[in-house]
Amino acid sequence: KAGVTQTPRYLIKTRGQQVTLSCSPISGHRSVSWYQQTPGQGLQFLFEYFSETQRNKGNFPGRFSGRQFSNSRSEMNVSTLELGDSALYLCASSPGGARGLYEQYFGPGTRLTVT
Amino acid sequence: AQTVTQSQPEMSVQEAETVTLSCTYDTSESDYYLFWYKQPPSRQMILVIRQEAYKQQNATENRFSVNFQKAAKSFSLKISDSQLGDAAMYFCAYKITQGGSEKLVFGKGTKLTVNP
Lengths: 115, 116
Prior knowledge:
The complex is a heterodimer of chains A (115) and B (116).
Chain A: E1 5-7, E2 10-13, E3 19-24, E4 31-38, E5 42-50, E6 53-57, E7 64-68, E8 74-78, E9 87-94, E10 105-106, E11 110-114
Parallel strand pairs in A: 2-11
Antiparallel strand pairs in A: 1-3, 3-8, 4-5, 4-9, 5-6, 7-8, 9-10, 9-11
Chain B: E1 3-5, E2 10-14, E3 19-21, E4 24-26, E5 33-39, E6 46-52, E7 60-61, E8 64-69, E9 74-79, E10 88-98, E11 101-106, E12 110-115
Parallel strand pairs in B: 2-12
Antiparallel strand pairs in B: 1-4, 3-9, 5-6, 5-10, 7-8, 8-9, 10-11, 10-12
């Protein structure tokens, strides 16, 4: 079974621009979560989508948004980029059923650099 | 608020020896899940081991085992017969449920170096 894939793997953007990151979960998984990883703050939860609905959102400004498609693929968007948005963005998928995050698997991440 | 604390920013171990990584957490829930994740330099986060709080028996996965002390809210990871491939960042995580959704709360991580 193929793992979680994220595209692109690396991205360089300029302050003020917007960016869209993509995540394809493991086949059959319906839940996709996004995390931001920085050296200073560590891993922080952004949001979780299940069956095209956002079920949970972390403490991030409205510039961070996401969506999930009917095939469970998910995208996250960051508008008006700031230098502090430079981070590794990790996507994780899980079945989304009763076992929830008990079976969560991470993708390789997208390294976003904002200059 | 649920928090996860890893008090050792860095640890080192000699190849073939045993090392224990510490993790403590704070929660008011009685049933929950705990995880250890490994993030090698290639950066893909890999699940190492997981523990359900209602299970008294400590989880074991090959060379990896945990010492789960529920009363003390402690969840340490023991790596036996350490190998060079074990070198990585190790994150302890706690699963919380909010409004029907779940998320992981991570510790800051411990960087493990394995010396040949």
